[in-house]
Amino acid sequence: MTRLASVLLLVAGLGAGCTPAYTVHVNTFSEIKEPRSRTASIYVWADPNSRNPILADILAAKVRTLLEGNGYAVAEKAEGAGALLTLRAGIDTTRVMDYMPVSRPYGGYHGLYGGRFRGLGYGYTAYVPYLSTVYTHWLEMRLSGPDPSAQPRSRPVWIGEAVVGMDDPELRVAANYLLVGLMEYFATDTGRWVSLRLKADDPRVQGLAEMQ
Questions:
Q1: Environment class of residue 142 by beta-carbon count within 10 Å: exposed (0-12), middle (13-18) or buried (19+)?
Q2: What pLDDT was estimated at residue 59?
């Protein structure tokens, strides 16, 4: 079992309970020297060449909602926008082997042994191997300046990466956590990987979950 897969599997397991919660790992890089003005409009680019353009449109709409919720101006068109924000997402599947403890009782008995009464006999614990699937969902955002051709090809000034491990392959669910995590550090530089614990009842996660 790889170290990353082990960690993500543990994180996914910790998410089980009355209110599911997941740990989102975020890493951002920035060349922005001053705090970004929230009045400069941002155009969110939904890649038309995506393997799933419908999902790309849904994610772009969710990003616009988060930007507006954080006080940023969102442009309706790429032309004239102060910046372009692109995003892409995907899933990496890993099969890992772990061991499950299983109690193995042997035959119970009552009676005398060695002159003393013995009660019910107890068994032992065995560890049975099993395969588990970890779905590592990832999301990347890139913020760049405007391009006269309305194509997001200029050098990015901010890049954000986020990953979360789940036992659910549904990217539409995982994306809600990834987007909230990245927006927490939008236009800033974390300097390293940081972690956020997000619950399913977080208002930001719930708000995005309602957008389908």
A1: buried
A2: 96
